[in-house]
Amino acid sequence: MKIIVDAFGGDNAPKAILDGALQAKKAYGVDLLFTGDEEKIRSCAAENGFDLTGCSIVHAPGVIAMDDDPKVV
After folding, report:
1. Residue 12: which residues within 8 A CB-CB, separation 6 or more?
2. Which of 27, 35, 38, 46 might form a disulfide with 59, Cβ 3.0–4.6 angstroms?
3. Mind listing the pLDDT tens digit for each residue in 23-69?
4. 40 lies in some domain
């Protein structure tokens, strides 16, 4: 099963997001595809010893803020 994860879609991102998703990958054998700023994802993974082997990353540098109007974004 492949799961797409917004690496910046939560508190303490991307570290907490990567950590939790990678734990699920290990426990359940899922395939992960992360979306977000690829450089920041890879940098965070390297700084924290997270192994991204077998994970895909789709570079998506844009950000939609909590207070953005959904009709405009």
Report:
1. none
2. 38
3. 999 999 999 999 999 999 999 999 999 999 999 999 999 888 889 99
4. yes
